[in-house]
Amino acid sequence: MWVASITGPRQGGCVERPEPRIAREFVKVKILSAPMCTESRAYRDGHITSSLGHEAAGEVVEIAQPGRVKVGDRVAVMPQFPCGSCERCTDGDYIHCEHGVDAKAICNSETGTATYAQYCIKQDWLLLPIPDDIPIDHGAMACCGLGPAFGAMQRMKVDAFDTVLIVGLGPVGLGAVINGVFRNARVLGVESHPYRARLARELGAETVLDPNDPEALKQIRSLTGGRGVDKAMDCTAVPAAQRFAIEATRRRGHVSFVGWGGKIEVENPVPAGRVLQGCWHWNLHDSHRMMQVIRRSRTLLDKLITHTFPLKRVADAWDLQLTGECGKVVLKPWEE
Fold this sequence. Notes:
The protein is α/β, with parallel strands linked by helices. It folds into two domains: about 1-145 and about 295-330, Quinone Oxidoreductase, Chain A, domain 1, CATH 3.90.180; about 145-280, NAD(P)-binding Rossmann-like Domain (Rossmann fold, 3-Layer(aba) Sandwich), CATH 3.40.50. Helix content is about 30%, strand content about 25%. The two termini are about 15 Å apart.
């Protein structure tokens, strides 16, 4: 099978690898849609690897034993390889499992854990059925396209009474705009890149402010009657942006950090009693709700997914991502 590979700084393509083997509860999935996430940074920096990608959707082509899925099922592939039996896993918060398993060792397989590939392997309980009326690319948005913001908004209980601020409108932040619009919240954004600011407005953001504008925080106050926003979400992991999200939020408001990495700089005690929380993914027990968001956001998801590339053109896709002139980019492993 073909697998994406980084061979040097801004150098990459596809290499041929053996198809994965499966065992026990593991399932082999033919990947039809592989959304791209932050792997472009590894491409930029020349981190040599063929283990790339953590989100996908496709079709079950082989099972090792009867279980929760069957051959022919269309599924969204959830990230990570958690144990499935600890308290975090059984509560649905599997993403926080501290006892992850070695999928390759269990299956005696050289490959299968990367999703920038034609096939992957996954435990059957981490494969979400995609209803027939949902396109495969939309189903793939259940991972990082919509997932981080969905989980954060579930925890913040965002609804139509809220004004929500999204700081950083990359693919995750753009997905947050869709989640906010779905919940009928008033959505404001902060983004310096003109392409992404424009796309956020097309997705339903009322206003997008430039973080480089020294009056940006004052504008937030003006837009909210001097109070600040009810809920805020940082999607950057940049300390200055995180601080902006906190300061733009009203007293007793709620701030979520979904950006990966970086260092959060917070005064002690937390200013004016704001609630701060880290969010990574979403609870698996909310799968039916996630599919409702996807089903009812079809037009917006078509706008969010701005580009698709055959897997063999992965370097071109990375080069595009590094310009910022895109929303969510999807790889097609079986297209030429």
